[in-house]
Design a protein that fits this description.
alpha+beta, 16% helix, globular, single chain, 8 helices, 402 residues
């Protein structure tokens, strides 16, 4: 018999509290929302995937096999690299997810990865229906139109952005679907997609996406194609803050962008942004925002608070936190703090900076380990900060009323 929807333990397997020190009302779950099996181009038995991910310590997991052409050529599962999943495989993933799902303990999700060589790949989670590039006329516009025709059927995310040369048709914004496009993979496998293409003169896909108008959360995924789902160290994963450990709770967290990207198992990250411009009333909730949320802010000072923990073994470890603001080809590093990781009895990391909404509508926090080697594509301004281990979802700056 499964436990109630909120029964997941308060301390996880790495000795880290699941409660944010900044916003303690919700609980952290560790998620991997992008995985493959032999139903498309993976090497692992789909019957084993969810069990492997649960055993590896994940609280939330998804199978998202490729959707390419198979829904138009039913039965061609013998050639999965070309065809991807068909409707029969789509039903099988639902059966496996329903059997593995255990409210309060483990959330198993069905999804698919819409896959186009030029435009890129996108995950769809929780939808009742399946589509592929052939049925969408092999165009980005066709996929968007299919999503829009489905109403509220499913949530959507940009996968390994910048891999397809057309980059989702330049991340062209679609207002009708914007609320359901909830994520961008900044970590996929071992790669940091902040730097994708920037060594060849291209714009960071993170900048391109956010500047196009998409208000997405930032996540990490393993994009596992092997047989050891959830096990390898150093691959991307996501942290979500949920009201309950259930499919509904996970969907709510994604819709609210209460998410962070990590490539360290057991890492807890949360962040708050407080406007110090003007006089905010005691009851004015707009004065403080959580990562993924909006802040009403006039030009002036703002305070950043960052909660990071990974258990006692990490206390005192050197950390660097950077505030990233709009810039091209990479975000501008607007402020940096370097300090030892505090223990639970010490104040969270905090700093102040000047923010002007006229200079850009978003702020992302990047957390790096200065002792680790930087990404080989990183310019000097980033290279000195070491290797990124986490990103928060963006804060969105809305001009405060006069």
């Amino acid at each position: 018999m499964s436990r109630p929807p909120s029964s997941i333990e308060y301390v996880d397997a790495w000795g880290t509290s699941r409660r944010s020190r900044l916003f303690p009302g919700r609980r952290l779950v560790h998620a991997d929302l992008h995985n493959h099996t032999t139903l498309s181009d993976g090497r692992g038995d789909p019957e084993k995937a969810f069990g492997c991910m649960r055993e590896a310590g994940l609280d939330v997991a998804a199978i998202t096999d490729h959707s390419r052409w198979a829904s138009a050529f039913l039965g061609l599962v013998a050639a999965p690299n070309w065809t991807g999943i068909d409707r029969r495989a789509w039903r099988r993933i639902a059966e496996l997810a329903d059997a593995a799902n255990d409210d309060g303990e483990f959330v198993a999700l069905r999804g698919f990865e819409w896959s186009h060589f030029s435009y890129g790949h996108m995950n769809v989670w929780g939808s009742e229906r399946l589509t592929d590039t052939l049925r969408n006329g092999a165009t980005m516009n066709g996929f968007w139109s299919w999503l829009e025709s489905r109403g509220k059927d499913g949530l959507v995310g940009f996968n390994h952005p910048g891999t397809g040369p057309l980059r989702f048709a330049g991340f062209r914004f679609r207002p009708a679907i914007a609320e359901r496009v909830v994520s961008l993979e900044v970590f996929n496998k071992h790669e940091d997609y902040l730097f994708k293409g920037t060594d060849r003169g291209k714009e960071s896909p993170v900048v391109q996406c956010l500047e196009a108008g998409w208000r997405v959360g930032l996540i990490g995924v393993t994009d596992e194609h092997g047989t050891d789902w959830g096990t390898p160290e150093g691959k991307g994963r996501a942290g979500l803050y949920v009201d309950e450990c259930s499919r509904h709770g996970v969907a709510q967290a994604l819709e609210a962008r209460r998410a962070f990207a990590s490539r360290v198992k057991g890492l807890r990250v949360d962040a708050a942004l407080t406007s110090l411009a003007g006089q905010a009333g005691d009851g004015d909730e707009r004065a403080r925002a959580r990562m993924g949320g909006s802040l009403a802010h006039s030009r002036g000072r703002a305070r950043v608070e960052v909660d990071v923990d990974r258990g006692e073994a990490w206390w005192g470890r050197p950390m660097s936190v950077q505030a990233l603001r709009p810039g091209r080809p990479l975000p501008v590093v607007a402020a940096t703090i370097e300090a030892p990781l505090p223990n639970p009895d010490e104040p969270v990391l905090a700093f102040e900076l000047d923010l002007d909404p006229a200079e850009g509508s978003w702020l992302v926090l990047r957390i790096s380990d200065p002792r680790e080697p930087p990404d080989p594509r990183a310019p000097a301004e980033y290279a000195r900060l070491g290797r990124a281990i986490a990103y928060t979802s963006p804060f969105w700056l809305d001009s405060a009323p006069a």
